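re: ur question from earlier - yeah i can do the single chain one, its not a big deal. heres the input i used so u can compare w yours
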Amino acid sequence: MRTILITGQGGTGRTTVAAATALKAAREGTRTLVLSADRADTLGAVLGVPTGSTPVEVGQNLTAWRPDAAERFREDLTAFQKRATTALDLLGASRLDAEEVTPLPGAEELALLRALRDAAMSETYGLLVVDLPPAPQALALLALPEELRRYLRRLLPAERQAARALRPVLGRLAGVPMPAEWLYETAARWDIELAAAEAVVEDRATTVRLVAEPGPAGADAVRAATTAFALRGLAVDALVASRVLPAATNDPWLAGLAAQQHKALDEWRHTHALHEIPHLGRDPRGTDDLAALPVPGVNATPPPVEWPVTDHLADDGVLVWHIPLPGAIRGELDLIRRGDELVVTAGQFRRIVPLPSALRRCTVAGAALREGELRVRFAPDPDLWPRTR
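and the output i got, formated as tokens:
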């Protein structure tokens, strides 16, 4: 199944583009699910059909779904209280009833990730179109499975579970309580669920489409988002310029705004697969309006983002790790080697990535940003690198 993640600036019509993309694919014969985490039913307003926690058929080949974060949060809290009964009793804690629970910040993101996983595993659909939050929140959401799995591995390493039978003895010897069995079981369950969501995000058939209004603010947002998604290893297959004004107009105010838009469009044509959606003079509503929008098709997919390592040992004595970061600014980049991981920061975005096995036996010898690509040089560590006779 192919997945298209749609995000961009806030208020630029992301939901409209997501709905129009899903409708176009459905009318071309692809069984399509459009998914949104918006607490307000913006998706339903655009489609002309109310959406909610139960998937609803919008038309032939098209289903819309807006997961209920509150319901899933209550289910998780109830399950946690049952598993932690002994600990809660020792603390004298009183139980929370499901009816008095409201979802905490982040519940919507977790509900969307679960829905993403469930949709991908259902094998019902050929295409999943996801209406994501604005780009900064979307990036945090997509990073969540990888980050949480990393935290779980650090806090509850899998190798410690081998000592389950010794845990009571170790607890008495150490004089401190040891983690209970249910804690490891819960961590393992969460790891499986997060791994499934992470697999959807990292799948080679998953791509991103950015939506932006052309202009100075839109240009800055697109540049930052393009860099950040490349840092996450996600390919941006299209840039959708929304609400484009006609170049020719007799209104001086509109003419100035149109000139500003078309200047940004000229720049984007050189850097992105650009698709322009003209301003309709109103907000699109219903399938007829959506069908009239010239959104990009869903058949072609760009090549995946690769981070190759090239061998320059014979010439320069180094291995070079190529990390594509289109739009990156040199002054906003930072690198830290920590053990077998590399911490890469680009502006406000950061990712901790494990080093390829060959580079773990090397030391960082320098880095340079050239033509939208970060090239990190690694020199073999004499104490770790295999010696040749």
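The chain has two domains: 2-68+105-291, 309-380. not sure if urs matches, ping me
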